[in-house]
Amino acid sequence: MEIIVEYTLLQNFIIDFLIFKTTAKVLRVKCHFIILASILGAIVALISPLFHLSKIGEFLLKMFLAVLLVSITFSYKKFSSFLKIYLTFFFCTFLYGGVCAFFVQTFGQLSTVIILSIIIVTYFVLGYLIKFVNKRKEIEKFCLEVKLLNEGKTCECKGFLDTGNLLSDPITNKPVNLISYKLFRELFNVDITDILTKKIDMKNLKFAHYINLGTVADSSKVLAFEIDKIVVGEKEQEKPVLALCLKNFKSYEMILHNSFA
To answer: I need a surface site. Which of 23, 52, 120, 235 has the fewest CB within 10 A?
Structure first.
């Protein structure tokens, strides 16, 4: 019986610990006294069956315990913040419980070691997904609507505001914005082979020239040129310098200079 009790305590402790960690990752907040809260949650989960509570009693106990554990583990100043943490905590609890229930229903009764392995793998998978979603949100936050105007032609695209882009044209000293081949082709309808072989008719581009892109150790020359105007939100630049970059820009077509920050 001692071994069963120890395993049950360990299982509930690890599950509670990972639920707290997942909640903190989802909301991107810090958690405190997480070990204390996990121990408390594991102890209550272990002894609660001894009281033979009704379904309503079990539900009220879980609700009160969740309030207590969230209050111990997370800091908040407003009720709305507490409610957000509380609901996320419940969501993560049901998520882990749902994963365990799925495997039990599919494969039958599982050992404590297998259950814990499933929980730990779920934690790392969720961690990866949360990191991926947060990274996408960060990118979207800096993605702006851009309008390029040149010789009566207007192109609209998504531009990524890169605060680390301090590239400037060595000839005009103007800030340089990088554009993809797709966007370049919309503006000038130039074939990719002409770009790669540097057989572009420079007369069709305004102030066309090549500039260095990259570090001293890894530098490459890219085609730079001017267009009539660029509009980013409420900001405008007359005769901005653009540079063609053949790298994949993913969900945007342009890397904006720091001057648009």
So the answer is: 52
Q: Show contacts of 151-156: CB within 8 Å, 24+ apart.
A: 151/228, 153/187, 155/183, 155/186, 155/187
Per-residue pLDDT reduced to its tens digit, 158-210: 888 888 888 888 888 899 999 988 888 888 877 777 676 677 766 678 888 88
Q: What is the dihedral of CA 125, 127, 133, 139, to 10 degrees?
A: -130
**Among the listed residues 231, 141, 243, 140, the one whose alpha carbon sits nearest the alpha carbon of residue 183:** 243
- Residues 213-242 as b/e (b if ≥16 CB within 10 A, e otherwise) read beeeeeeeebbbbbbeebbbeeeebeebbb
What φ, ψ does residue 227 adopt, rounded to 5°? -125, 175
Q: Residue 70 and residue 171: Cα distance in Å, rounded? A: 59
CA distance 37 to 234: 49
**165 contacts 236 by C-beta, under 8 angstroms:** no
Give the C-alpha separation, 182 to 167, whole Å. 21
What distance, in Å, lies between the first and last C-alpha atoms of the chain? 64
139-142 own/partner pairs: CB under 8 Å, 24+ apart: 139/250, 139/251, 139/252, 140/251
3-state secondary structure of 109: coil
Q: What is the pLDDT of residues 108-126, one digit of tens each?
A: 888 888 888 999 999 999 9
Q: In what order do the strands lie in the sheet with 219-226?
A: 206-214, 219-226, 241-244, 176-179, 254-256, 153-161, 143-150, 229-232, 235-238
Radius of gyration over every alpha carbon of the chain, rounded to an integer in angstroms: 28
